[in-house]
Structure formats: C-alpha cells, structure tokens
Design goal:
Layout (H helix, E strand, L loop, with lengths): L8 H12 L5 H8 L3 H13 L3 E7 L9 E7 L4 H9 L4 E7 L4 E6 L4 H10 L6 E14 L16 H7 L17 H9 L5 H8 L3 H13 L3 E7 L8 E9 L4 H8 L7 E5 L5 E7 L2 H12 L5 E14 L5 E2 L2 E2 L15 H4 L11
Antiparallel strand pairs: 1-6, 2-4, 2-5, 3-4, 3-10, 5-8, 7-9, 7-10, 8-9, 11-12
Length: about 350
C-alpha cells in the first residue's frame, strides 16, 4: 500500500469509525458498517502495517492542571534536523515539524509539570544551533481536541446513527478518579499501542486482566486518558500542509476560530498567546489548493488583520508517532519488565531525556 488509490470506501469508513472510538472493537465496527469482524480486523492490520494509521493513548493535560505550548524554534542552517530528532524523542513533545524551508522547528510541548516544561523552554535557547525561540501558550482549542475532529478526506461519511453507535458514553463526573503512580506502566503501554489488548495491559502492569480493564475504563470516563488516531496524511491524499499564524481582532477571535473549525481543511485551530493570537494547521491536496484556501476562505474572513503562512517541509513526529518518510513508524518494543513507576506528574520525559544537541 503505497498510493492513495489502494484505499477504498470501506477503508475510509473504518478510519472514520476509529476516529469516533479508537478502541472500538472490530465486531462493533463491523456491525455498524455491515461487514464481518474478520474483514474489519484484516483491513485495520493492513492500514496499520502500511504506516497509515496508529492508535495512541495520551494523558489529558487539562485534567492535570497543565497547559500546552506551541513553540517555534529558529535554527542555524543544518541545525534543525538533529534538534528536531532530539525533541521528537521526548515524551512531552509532540507534532515536531520542520517549516520555513527547513530553518524552523514547530512543536507542541505537553509537559506534565511546570518544572519539566520550564526546564525544556529554558534549555532550548542555550542550545548552540538555536537562533531564536517563541513560545505560545494554548488558550483554547476550536478544533483538534478529539480524534474525530477532522473528516476532510473524501468518500461517504458515517451517518449520525453510526457515529452514535460507536461513541463511548461520556462520564457523568460522579466517579472521582485521579492518576496514581501505579498507572505508569498502563500509560506506557497505551502510549506504545492504544489498541493493545487487555491481556497486554495486565502483563505490563502486573494486574489481573479484569483490573486493567476496569482501570482503563475509569480513566477514560474521567477524561484523564484519551485515545487519538495518528494518520499519515500524505498517503491519504493530503501531501500539502502548513501552519497559519493569524493576528485577529480581539472582538473577532471567537468568531474566526469557530469558523475555521468548520473548514474541512483545518484539523487544528486554537487561540494562543502572542502577537499572532490564533494558530491553525491546514491540510490540502496540493499547493494550489492551499493557495485557493488562503486567498478565498481566509481572505474573506472578517476580523483577520494579518496572516503568516508557514509551509510544513517535513513531519518528524505527530501526536505520538515518529515518522519514516510519509509513513508512521511502528511503535517501540515493549519495555521488558512491569514496574510501579514514578508519579505521573513527573514521569514523562524523565526516564531518558535526551539533551538537545549543542
């Protein structure tokens, strides 16, 4: 599977179903789509082995009382590659991309503690290859907060009834749940493979399978753990992407962000701190399509005072997946032994934190 014409409508519907619930059972997906469980399982494994999709488990920063930051790092010529690779190896850094012709790194810093975040942001400017750094605190997501926010690929979409049948019921907040140190191995396993079996979770944690099942369900209902679906966009027919850094009149910020959230071209848009107070990622089928989007839809949006378009040259890491060319790299091998693990507020990035080059 190397070309988008290898994907058919059923593949597209399976991807949509996994966006609704990335851990939905093959049987449940088959019932909704009117095909056999075996067919869904075979198609999923083909998509995953081809590096087109990967399910990952992530911890909600909002529920930990932490904020996400979008960081732009300007580097010396030839310095972006090694630094981007070092950042991508960190567990608290996601969406590592090379932009501006390869002279800039844009990444998402998702540290689980103030100390961890501040340590990274203070060390980066001191790296010899770094010429400048701008950090934007993410204030509000208009789109990109859940795995099914983006449905820009063509093909027949799931009906509201199909989506409702797949969606995981939301928790009512009546069950008090907090992360504890013993959750560490479970979180590690989910970050490696968000669809790993409950038997694998039990083996990783040393718990019974029933306990692992109940704990994951409780963490998901409480919103502490969520599952995302990484997609290899170029292989789905969307090889052109860019960041839009918009300066929007304060009175129009909500309206502009809400409007962008309705555009099929926009998988992510958020209000941020800084002179550019709204950032969005754009995914298109071609450079011409990007041009048409910017000059028609964005140009016609009231309240936008200034716009910077920063094309993505290469993705080094997505939400939780490293990339090999346009494909998602397979997950790392399971760590050899179960452990109780350190406190979740300290564990991310503390185990073997690579030092940025320089």
């Amino acid at each position: 599977m190397s070309e988008t014409d290898a994907l058919d409508d059923l593949d597209g519907k399976i991807i949509q179903a996994l966006q609704v619930d990335p851990r939905a059972g093959f049987s449940a997906i088959g019932d909704v789509l009117g095909v056999s469980e075996q067919t869904v399982a075979r198609r999923f494994r083909r998509l995953r082995s081809a590096g087109l999709i990967r399910v990952i488990g992530l911890v909600s920063l909002r529920h930990l009382g932490q904020s996400e930051w979008v960081v732009r790092v300007t580097c010396q010529p030839g310095g972006t590659g090694p630094l981007a690779d070092a950042l991508a190896r960190r567990e608290d850094v996601a969406w590592v991309t090379l932009t501006a012709g390869g002279s800039e790194i844009v990444c998402s810093v998702q540290s689980r503690s103030d100390e961890q975040r501040d340590d990274l942001l203070q060390r980066l400017p001191a790296t010899s290859r770094v010429l400048g750094l701008t950090a934007h605190a993410l204030l509000h997501r208009y789109v990109g907060a859940s795995s099914d926010d983006w449905a820009g690929f063509t093909g027949e979409r799931l009906t509201p009834a199909q989506v409702a049948a797949l969606r995981l019921p939301a928790g009512d907040g009546s069950e008090p749940v907090t992360l504890v140190p013993e959750d560490g191995p479970l979180l590690d396993e989910l970050a490696r493979d968000g669809r790993c079996s409950y038997a694998a979770l039990a083996a990783a944690t040393g718990w019974s399978q029933g306990r692992a099942t109940r704990r994951l369900a409780a963490l998901r209902r409480a919103g502490l753990v969520y599952l995302d679906l990484d997609l290899a966009m170029p292989l789905l027919g969307f090889p052109t992407s860019a960041y839009l850094w918009l300066t929007v009149e304060p009175a129009s910020l909500v309206a502009v962000g809400t409007e962008l959230a309705q555009h099929d071209e926009v998988p992510f848009a958020a209000a941020v701190t800084g002179s550019a107070n709204l950032v969005a990622t754009i995914t298109c089928r071609s450079t011409e399509a990007l041009y048409q989007y910017v000059t028609t839809r964005i140009a016609a949006t009231a309240g936008v005072r200034q716009l910077e378009v920063s094309p993505v040259r290469r993705r080094v890491k997505q939400a939780g997946s490293r990339t090999i060319g346009h494909r998602l790299a397979p997950p790392e091998s399971r760590r050899p032994a179960a452990r109780s693990g350190p406190s979740p507020s300290r564990r991310s990035g503390r185990r073997a934190r690579p030092t940025p080059p320089g």
